[in-house]
Structures are given as structure tokens and as C-alpha cells.
Amino acid sequence: MTLSFATPDDATRSVHLLAESATPDWRSRQAQDVQAWIDAHGFTGAIGQALLLPGGRDAVIGYGSESSRARGRFHVAAAAAKLPKGTYRLVTDLPADQLQIEALGWLLATYRFDRYKDQSPMVALLVAPDGIDAARTEAIAQGEALTRTLINTPAADMGPPDLEQAARDLATQHRATITVTTGDDLLTQNLPMIHAVGRAADRAPRLIDLTWGDTGPKLTLVGKGVCFDTGGLNLKPGASMGLMKKDMGGSASVLGLAHMIMATDLPIQLRVLIPAVENSVSGNAFRPQDILTSRKGLTVEVNNTDAEGRLVLADTLAFADEDTPDLIISMATLTGAARVAVGPDLAPYYTDEAPLSAALENAAATTADPVWRMPFHTPYEALIEPGIADLDNAPKGGFAGSITAALFLRRFVDSAPYIHFDIYGWQPSSAPARPKGGVGQGTRALLDALPKMLKL
């Protein structure tokens, strides 16, 4: 799905963006019939209100109050879906950064997942507002659409081969290079934990390696690509398995971010690594109490086969680190503990690098893409050391589950600055510009922060 701004024509309507405090004054300057129309329809400028004015050439959208806007984001999108069919041009004095967010929200509101069923399209289309970077906004929206569609697609149609094809399509679009290591070749290439997790599935495990750009600092994105997670021999109960098509949300997010980076021609050397597997049950599935030897040489005691994401990421991170990039970022739907800590709307992340965190926090605030820093709390290292192996993939006790998972991953990165995102990747109920289903988290903030992070 391509999310793009509309082309203006003679029928393009002006849509006035009115805060609650500005609505009475604006109303008083209109003709009597317009005033009566506004009063008859109860338009006050509240968030979500939209009204086509008499004559059909103008419309108004409510922008609420400062306090009401603080309770959400993409406020224009909340009303745009209520407008009748046509193209619209925003009339507003919003600062350029806020206008860009609202224009992006309008584009994102046009997203529909329609692979299996026709969906009613959004009929109100936006002309790119003056003062924004329209091409960049479209690139961000299209990257987000890619992420959403990959997550929304069920595992029957989004297994490891399908995820590989999505990466190949992206590589073709941007003239990137891609190589894939599949099946038993993972063992000969010393990627044993990716192989162990994925070997029980009919569709072979693989490591996808996409590269783009030949100058500038090196950025490596690592995305968890568990296309479906049964839990393995530690089988999940049915209620916990229901959303496991989204367990490749990390890979979907890094592919969406990669599109944004390549489409905006960021002057870097980009690498995207995705361990794509299914965590399935069969006679050759890896078992509780198995001890695996990772690519890095660290041994890992498997105390829960449902903590498989950190295993495939560990080999991938060690592989990424060997190239000594300037920054490694991993994204994964890794732990339920992160959801308990911050809920579904925040993207928690870990880093030891204060300048990276500062850049990310600033970017999150200006891109309507909230993130929350979590601690790499070193005293908890003892919790991931089982005694008979170097590491434990599932420490007992239940405390600090997201932190111990992040500490596990940190053991596999030595040479590069590192950021790890423990995302949810799912919108549990519809919100403005975010329908229920797959969603990107942290990617817009990262795109905005990368120039500072990489000192471009």
C-alpha cells in the first residue's frame, strides 16, 4: 500500500484547523449562515470534530485544548476520517514540526490491511501542506505501512521464506544487496542458535543480510524474525499463542525503518540482519535443559524454549558486532515483562550510551513516537548465570524479565555502541492514525535521531 499526498485540483477544499479557544473568534468572523450552521451542529473545536460548511468549499476540524491534546497524538487524523470524499488543504498556523506530525497522521489514517478482505478506504485525502518535507513524510508513512502489513499478515503467509521475500523486494526497490543463509548452512556458517530454534519447523530457518550504501558511518539494524512462536516444547497456552504472528514485529520494524533510511537517502552504510525462524514442535525441537554453544562461544542453558527470541538475536548480534559498526540497534517483541512495565503504547529501550539516549528522547518528543529508557542494571547479571553454562535464557523468579533479557543480549555486543528495543508491535484497540493491528514503534524517533547518533 502506497501512502501519498493527493494532487490538488479545482475541487480541493480548505479545511480550517481550530482549537477550542480559537473557535468562538473564528466563528464570529463568518457569515450569519455559517455561524448558524456551526451552532446547529454543535461544533466547538473539540478533538475529533469535523464539519463541512455551507457551500461545500470549506470545512473545519477541531484541535481541542492543550490538555486534551496531551492525552493522545495525531489529532487531525481523529477528525479527517469523518470528512466527505474529496481532497483537502489544511489552513493552520501550526509550527512546521507540529504540522508535519499532523500531516503524517493523516497519511497513516489512510492505511488499510486489505489482503484478505476489501476495506472501506478513507475518502478524505490531504494535499501536502506548505512548509513540510512532503517526500520525507511520505517515506515515513510508507515505511510504517510496510511494518504494519508484515505484522498483520498471518504466519501461514508470513513464514521465514515470505519474510525473506519481503526483504528481497525492499532490496530491489532500493538497489540494495541481499544474501541469505538457510537451513543447515547456518551450522557451517557458525550460526548454531538460529538453527537450533528454527530446525523443528517445515520452513527452514535463515539469516537475512541486507546491505545498502558504501560511504558514511556504519549502522546495523537487527530485527527478531520469529514468524510464529508456539513456545516450542514449553508450549504456550492457547490464549498466549493468539497473537504470535506478531513475534516477527522486530524484523518488520527494522525493514520499515530501513525503507525510511534508504528512501530519504541518509548518507550511511546500512546493514539489516534478520534471523527468520518458526519456533515449532516436532521430534527434533530443541529441549529444556539443552545447552547450546553460541556463535560467540558462550554456552547457554535453555531453561525455557519459549525464550527463543534472545537465542536467535544473540548469534545475530555477535555476527553484527564482528563488522565493528558505529552503532547496532536491535528491535524485538521480546518480553511480556516490558508490556507489564510500560504498557502497549510506549517503546522501551536500553542503552549504556547517554548521548544516544539524549538524541533519541529529543527525537521522540518531536515525532509523536514515544519511547522510554530502561536500565541495563548490571547487578542483575548474576540472574542470567546458571552455573553449569555461561548464560541462562530464562532466569527463574519472574523478576525484571525485560532487563535480564536485555542483559543477555548485551553479552553478545563488545565493539559497538548498542541500543535494544523491547517493543510490542501491536495496537490493541484503534486510535487516531493507528488501527487495531500491527504498528511500528520507535522507528520514527530513530530516523530523526540517527544524524546526531552517527554524527552526520
Automatic annotation (TrEMBL):
Belongs to the peptidase M17 family. This is Leucyl aminopeptidase. Pfam families: Peptidase_M17, Peptidase_M17_N_1. Keywords: Aminopeptidase, Hydrolase, Manganese, Protease. One of its GO terms (cellular component) is cytoplasm. One of its GO terms (molecular function) is metalloaminopeptidase activity. It comes from Tateyamaria omphalii. The keyword Transcription regulation does not apply.
